[in-house]
Amino acid sequence: MPKPPVTPRGRQRLPTAGSDEKRERILKAAEALFDRNGYSHTTMEQIVQALGVTKPFVYYYFRNKQEIFETLCWAPTEACFTVLDFAADDTRPAHEKAMDGLQRLIAATIAHYPAAFFPYREPQAFSPAYMKASRALARQFYRQLCALLEEGRASGHFDFRETRITAQAACSLPGFLYHWYRPDGRLGTAEMVAELTHLAGRVLGLGGARAATPAPRPRTASPAKKTPARRSRPAAEPPGKA
Hints:
Number of strands: 0
Order of helices and strands: HHHHHHHHH
Radius of gyration: 25 Å
Helix content: 40-55%
Strand content: under 5%
Structural class: mainly alpha
């Protein structure tokens, strides 16, 4: 696993009692501002004001806005791209591991809302070191996933053609959550994870040919029926009415 590209320290040299709690407080306030205003329209001054503290308080833990942003984003990046790091003695078949990993990927993406969506919304905000570490994690993840998919296809549990395209398509389901997901939506977290995992399985062709959708049956001509006389009805409700 690549070394984390950012170690939030600011002017702090040694850990102190409560330093982790204070750092998390800064991250929480900054996360809300980045989510509402975007990276470029969020300033250190705004973060300071949201916390009700002085600038030295924030700079003691973080060097600058980018370090705060990258610290926020690294936690979900690492959580999502390590979901396939199964134990060496995990003997489950490949298709079970692949589906378990995709379910965990979706759950991790939602659990880290909204910071998990920042890399999709603000790809220009990261340092070269961060991008290098993030891409290394992503490459390792896709190597693992593609290997599981091919093994699952060979065993007859998956049915797809292009391995890499299929892997990216399945992972685009949680990836594009940032366009529309809201934590107060109609489906709860567990229901959302279950629904997206089911859709990911369909992308992979879970079940292979044995689970293929049956072809529609041809329609047979039905006996002609006498059409009853039409009765006058009140006008239909306008569109949108129940």
